[in-house]
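Table S2 (text version). Query chain:
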Amino acid sequence: MSRNRAYPSDITDAEWDVLEALVPAVKPGGRPAKHDRRVIVDAIFYVNRTGCSWRSLPIDFPHWMTVYRYFRDWKQAGVYIQLNEALRGQVRRGAGRNPVPTAVISQSVKTSERGGQGVRRREGDQGPQTLSDR
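Corresponding structure-token output:
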């Protein structure tokens, strides 16, 4: 299917050059794919960017059920995680950094001076109220 319109969510040729190798290829042995993978990716990006429902995809994209099936299958196969990791690695290598991010989170929490005896109530405090007490 050839598309006549271009949308702001469509990927550029340079972006497709990077993504093409990461998007799953057509499975061998079956019938040939009816839709180009790039059109499927553009349709998924359109839904993501606009926030529209799958059924609201413009008519020049493949049928919404087709696009959603690819989205669902690729999600279940972990394709989006692999895409994110590969693209992140490329960006980090381009910045001269380690492709795999490393981080150390250190946090210390001060406990009470009494060793966690609990919260002391103020004078006159009745404690937790329940709906039946009202």
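Notes on Table S2: Helices lie at 13-19, 37-50, 64-76, 79-94. The chain is about 35% helix and 0% strand.
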